[in-house]
Write a structure and sequence with these properties.
The chain has 13 helices and 9 strands. It has a 7-stranded mixed beta sheet, sandwiched between helices. The N and C termini lie far apart (63 Å). The model has no long low-confidence stretch (mean pLDDT 94). 44% of the residues lie in helices and 20% in strands. α2 crosses α3, α2 packs across α4 and α7 packs parallel to α8. The protein has 2 domains: 57 residues, no CATH class; 210 residues, 3-Layer(aba) Sandwich (Rossmann fold), CATH 3.40.50.150. It has 279 residues and is of the alpha/beta class. The structure holds S-adenosylmethionine (SAM).
Length: 279
């Protein structure tokens, strides 16, 4: 019934989502659902499951309904006002780990923490590192602090316009420069809003999604300018890119005096710009 309802609403993953939501309503994990099917279901449980299915039918993302999403093998709490972590962002973590593998106590800064998925994961995957992150959204910073605490990560968080607050922080206390500046910045062209999935367009925060009108590469250029000032000579900038923006990002990095390259994701889309100060 639950699956048929979501199918009628046009959802491609109706079966999986129906199972996830019914399990969530019963307070159990998806695999236990099948064991529970032998037992009678209380009417309040039916009501709870129906409410969740109705929300999903209105295209609210599953992660906001269940309040969680997995990223790099860990469960992150998420909610409205915070971007839901995406699988393609895990590539930033792989590249950062590879790049920092031989460094003793790397200093890492992130622009735009959202749920904290990048900052918290890097702090946990790179023992001995110091990770500082920031967001203009107080909801995002609160979510990052919550996830850091739950997952046992030590992350420094700053609230405010990222380039200003990170700039101040680094001027005060980072004489040797950053080993890594990393970001998944807002990169969706606002002109493409009508083509976005309703889950994204109608539920995820605009501040997290959209680049400034008419300047889709704004944050790449801003991050390159910041990297110029903040990176240590052997440091690097890693920025996640929107589909189709690889060439422009590479050209901007080269024009700004970096040795730069692009990394493709599993779908062969240029997904990450890596830029290192020219020796
Ligand atoms: C695409 S989301 C990335 C969130 C998270 N790092 C992730 O990968 O899921 C971009 C984040 O940048 C934040 N942001 C947008 N403009 C900002 C600014 N001027 N200063 C700091 N953060 C900003 C948004 O609030 C949002 O959390």
């Amino acid at each position: 019934m639950a699956r048929a309802f979501l199918e009628r609403k046009g959802l491609d993953e109706a079966r999986l989502e129906a199972e996830l939501l019914c399990a969530h309503a019963l307070g159990i994990d998806r695999l236990r659902l099948f064991l529970r099917l032998e037992q009678p279901i209380e009417s309040h449980e039916v009501d709870a499951a129906r409410d969740l299915l109705v929300r999903r039918g209105r295209r609210e993302p599953v992660a906001y309904i269940t309040g969680k999403r997995e990223f790099y093998g860990r469960e992150f709490a998420v909610g409205p006002g915070v971007l839901i972590p995406r699988p393609e962002t895990e590539q930033l973590i792989d590249l950062a780990r590879e790049f920092l593998a031989d460094r003793e106590a790397p200093l890492v800064a992130e622009f735009g923490c959202g749920s904290g998925c990048i900052a918290v994961t890097l702090a946990l995957e790179l023992p001995g590192s110091h990770v500082v992150t920031c967001d203009l959204s107080t909801t995002a910073v609160a979510q990052t602090r919550l996830n850091a605490e739950r997952l046992g990560a030590d992350v420094e968080t700053l609230i405010g316009d990222g380039l200003s607050v990170l700039g101040e922080r680094l001027r005060r206390e980072a004489p040797r420069g950053l080993d890594l500046l990393v970001s998944n910045p807002p990169y969706v062209d606002p002109a493409s809003r009508p083509e976005l999935q309703p889950e994204v367009r109608d539920y995820e925060p605009e501040l997290a999604l959209y680049a400034p009108e008419g300047d889709v590469d704004h944050w790449v250029k801003q991050l390159l300018a910041a990297a110029k000032k903040w990176l240590a000579p052997r440091g690097a900038l890693l920025v996640e890119l929107g589909a189709g923006r690889g060439k422009a990002a590479l050209a901007a990095a080269e024009a700004a005096g970096f040795d730069a390259r692009l990394h493709q994701d599993l779908a062969r889309i240029d997904r990450v710009l890596e830029a290192r100060p020219r020796a």
